[in-house]
């Protein structure tokens, strides 16, 4: 729901910007934040406002010292940026805020013997069930970076150009929620497993700190209308 509201706000901002400015540019990019679409409007001679959305899903493997995980990363961001051009070239300095809907779903994989090993204790997956979790980040994240390309350059005629971004999205400390479901073992075993899962959740959070400052690299094309 929060992402829906952010997208609605971005669309309204784009509509207002388009109505207020006859000169607009559109950029399509692909990079670490996924596939993106941005609209740029001039604010001052060396300053543009840029609004956009980015999204992508992909899967990869991860692990803590005890558990291997199947990770599904869901990228969902809405950008509100200012591009400053200090020289009469396409080089820009960028800053702004991002609605950050990025999250990671984590599914623990039992070892080769079909068991989890947590805190030195072994639990057959067939008895203790599934190990699932989620990693979330703060919803509003600052962005700083540099880039190239000016989709609304006064020296450029209508047509195509190149655009690139290199920066950092400061997502903050991750929040992890790891739990188990379907435990069919005796109550004492399930209770011990739950306590070890809580300890594993802390390990997962430490590993997720790698995503605290998320690198942004985007390449694409822009078009000036």
Notes on the protein architecture:
- There is one protein chain.
- The protein is of the alpha+beta class and 225 residues long.
- The protein has a single domain, classed as Beta Barrel (Porin).
- It is 20% helix and 55% strand.
- Strand 3 and strand 4 form a beta hairpin.
- The longest helix has 22 residues.
Keywords, separated by commas or semicolons:
225 residues; alpha+beta; Porin; eight-stranded antiparallel barrel; two-stranded antiparallel sheet; 55% strand
By CATH, the architecture is named: Beta Barrel
Structural domains: how many: 1
CATH fold node name:
Porin
Q: Give the amount of beta strand, in percent.
A: over 45%
Low-confidence stretches: 9-21
Helix/strand order, N-terminal first: HEEEEEEEEHEEEEHE
Helical residue percent band: 10-25%
Largest sheet: 8 strands, antiparallel, barrel
Q: What is the terminal-to-terminal distance?
A: 33 Å
Give the CATH class.
Mainly Beta
**Number of DSSP-assigned strands:** 13
Anisotropy-based shape: elongated
What is the radius of gyration computed over CA atoms, rounded to a whole number of angstroms? 22 Å
Looking at how many chains there are and whether they match, the oligomeric state comes to: single chain
Strand order of the largest sheet: 1-2-3-4-5-10-11-13
- By DSSP (H or I, 4+ residues per run), the number of helices equals 3
Estimated structural class: alpha+beta
Mean pLDDT across residues: 89
């Amino acid at each position: 729901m929060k992402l829906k509201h952010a997208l609605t706000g971005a669309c309204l901002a784009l509509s207002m910007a388009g109505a207020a400015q006859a000169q607009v540019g559109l950029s399509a990019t692909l990079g670490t934040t996924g596939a993106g679409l941005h609209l740029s409007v001039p604010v001052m001679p060396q300053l543009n406002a840029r609004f956009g959305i980015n999204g992508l899903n992909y899967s990869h493997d991860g692990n803590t010292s005890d558990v291997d995980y199947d990770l599904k990363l869901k990228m969902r961001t809405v950008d509100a940026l200012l591009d400053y051009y200090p020289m009469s070239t396409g080089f820009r300095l960028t800053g702004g805020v991002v609605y950050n809907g990025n999250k990671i779903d984590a599914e623990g994989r039992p070892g080769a013997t079909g068991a989890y090993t947590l805190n030195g204790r072994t639990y057959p997956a067939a008895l203790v069930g599934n190990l699932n979790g989620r990693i979330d980040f703060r919803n509003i994240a600052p962005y700083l970076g540099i880039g190239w390309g000016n989709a609304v350059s006064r020296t450029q005629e209508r047509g195509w150009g190149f655009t690139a971004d290199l920066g950092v999205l400061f997502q903050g400390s991750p929040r992890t929620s790891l739990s188990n479901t379907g435990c069919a073992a005796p109550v004492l075993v399930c209770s011990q497993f739950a306590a070890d899962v809580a300890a594993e959740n802390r390990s997962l959070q430490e590993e997720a700190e790698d995503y605290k400052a998320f690198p942004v690299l985007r390449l694409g094309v822009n078009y000036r209308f």
